[in-house]
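TL;DR need structure tokens for one chain.
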Amino acid sequence: MSIANIKDSGNQGNNMPWQWKVLQGLQGIITQLQTTLSANVKIVGPLNNQQSADSVSVVLTDDQFKRAITPNILKQTGVTGNLAVDAYSISFASNGTAAARVSFDGGINFEDLPPGTTVNMDAGGLGWIYTGDIFYWDTLTNAGSSLIITWNS
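>> reply
TL;DR here they are.
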């Protein structure tokens, strides 16, 4: 786009006034956008769950996210119990001669795990956890049942 055509005489063939108004209009739009749009974003923490309207997508590199994971193991025979701590992953291995009973909903419903069955569960990602008091087990009801329970906390 040329602002002026100085080879023309008078205003014939010269579109400078129109082009000048277009440029002024564009500058007005830019100025209005700059004054009304605000990028006022408060980043609370990259691992907190936020509503999408209150969050900013970020990419974490390996050196930005480090968390020490503690592996745990528990052998249970002839008892009932529950995992009262948060876990990133958990595994139940039924290693007895009878089915062990396991609950994944806070002890409301139990599933029978036949001998030789292993169930592995992972919370799914960085900072995602299973909250404490979800997982219960029963190796008392069925004589001969036994569990090896491993989890990461």
